[in-house]
Amino acid sequence: MSHKNQVEPWMGSVAGAVANVASISLHPLENIKLRFQASDLAANNPIPRYKSILDALRQMYRHEGMIALYRGSMVNTVATSLAQSIFFYVYNDGKNMY
């Protein structure tokens, strides 16, 4: 393998972090899934029962604002981005050494 085809380890690290941050766009669906699960667990749960995914999105946005769609995402994004960044750095560095 020529040196031209090798990827610098830091490039893999950045790619892993950026890909994970891009996945944040799907976090509202994760929040909706959790709310559906929680509303099924207890009959007296104050979380409203939603008719559909779109209904859940509308109600969450209307009653709690945009922040409700992304609640809890920051810690997950930071932790996973760091882990993916380290993984891709080590993977590309190991691949280049091999």
Report on the architecture of this protein.
By secondary structure, this protein is mainly α. The chain has one domain (8-97). It contains five helices and no strands. It is elongated.
Offer a concise description of the structure.
The protein is mainly alpha-helical. It is 71% helix and 0% strand. It has one domain (8-97).
Helix content: over 70%
Unreliable spans are none
Main β sheet profile: none
Shape call = elongated
Order of helices and strands: HHHHH
**With helices defined by DSSP (H or I, 4 residues minimum), what is the helix count?**
5
Distance between the termini: 11 Å
Q: What's the arrangement of secondary structure elements?
A:
Layout lengths: L8 H14 L4 H15 L11 H12 L1 H4 L3 H25 L1
Helix pairs in contact: 1-5
Keywords:
single chain; 98 residues; mainly alpha; 5 helices; 0% strand
